[in-house]
Amino acid sequence: MAPMNIIVALKRFSIIALLLAFSGPSLAQADYPNKLVRIILPYAPGGTTDMVARAVAQQLAVKWGQSVIVDAKPGASGLIDTGGASISSVWLRA
Q1: 29, 56, 58, 72: which could form a disulfide with 41 (CB 3.0–4.6 Å)?
Q2: Which class for 43: exposed (0-12), middle (13-18), buried (19 or more C-beta within 10 A)?
Q3: How close are the terminal C-alpha atoms of the chain, in Å?
């Protein structure tokens, strides 16, 4: 085998090995999402963003087979909702 063919074979082997190594963790997450999903919306209910968020939530619920809730909390230029998103792991423990 010529030296150039060995290099090409090693490159192909390396690529295949990397693909196999990184495919394991993605297969382990097959059951996501496994609990309630909450879309945090920093705008008032009834507006365009609320209608779009609810339409997206409905389609996600059908696709994922999981409940998707739109949580609208307007005020303080979105800071109220931003603070809620930063502690969202606490919200989802309920």
Answers
A1: 72
A2: middle
A3: 63
Specify whether the CB–CB gap between 29 and 64 falls below 8 A.
no
Is residue 63 domain-shared with residue 25, that is, in the same domain? no
Per-residue pLDDT tens over the stretch 12-57: 888 888 777 776 666 656 566 778 888 888 888 888 888 999 999 9
43 lies in the same domain as 89: yes
Record the tokens describing residue 44, joined without a space. 């008032």
CATH number reported for the structural domain that contains residue 70 in this entry: 3.40.190.150
Domain that holds residue 49: 31-94
